[in-house]
Amino acid sequence: MNRRNLLILLAILIVMGGYVYFAEVRGSKPSSEGEISTEQSQLWTMTAEDVVRLEIEQPVTAAAVRLTYYGEIGWQCLEPPLEATDQDRVKKIVSQLVDIRANRVLSETNEPLNVFGLAAPGYVIRIMPLGEDEMVLRIGDKNPQGTAYYVQIEGQRPEPVEGQQPIYLLPTYALDQAIGLLTSPPVPPTPTPTATPAASPEVTETPTP
User: What is the pTM of this model?
Assistant: First the structure.
């Protein structure tokens, strides 16, 4: 390979390397020196069975869903008031929230909260375990890829000593299920009616003349 071809190949590699860096590494909104991987770690140690209350709020519209667990009765939706509550749906949402794992965390970002949509959070989720302090998730914008929300959490441990609280990137699949309760309350599905077999027509024997 002559020197000219070698230089061309080297230039191509530099361009490709720059593209990967800016598209993949710098492309996420926005980066920070304090950004660290959480290795998909859980945010708390409580289990779904510990949760006795769940609230989802949309501050701008004042819309809210409030659910309380009553032991043998199960989950009841108090706001909006429902005569019956879809137990399976609520249990699934609670389990997803409790088991949620952070993709990443921005621990020392200098960016203002409005960059992440957290100056005025779009949604607030409150998870209340029995005998423990509530966990409050303040949910901002989605990341550019649309795979995670920027979230600040109150009640997690350890609390930051000073400065801005860490900003977590939490996967959308679990949060969207909870947020969806605001527009689609947990009403039990309507049972499919069972078809009643049609009665056979009664055959009247014609007398033989």
Answer: 0.72
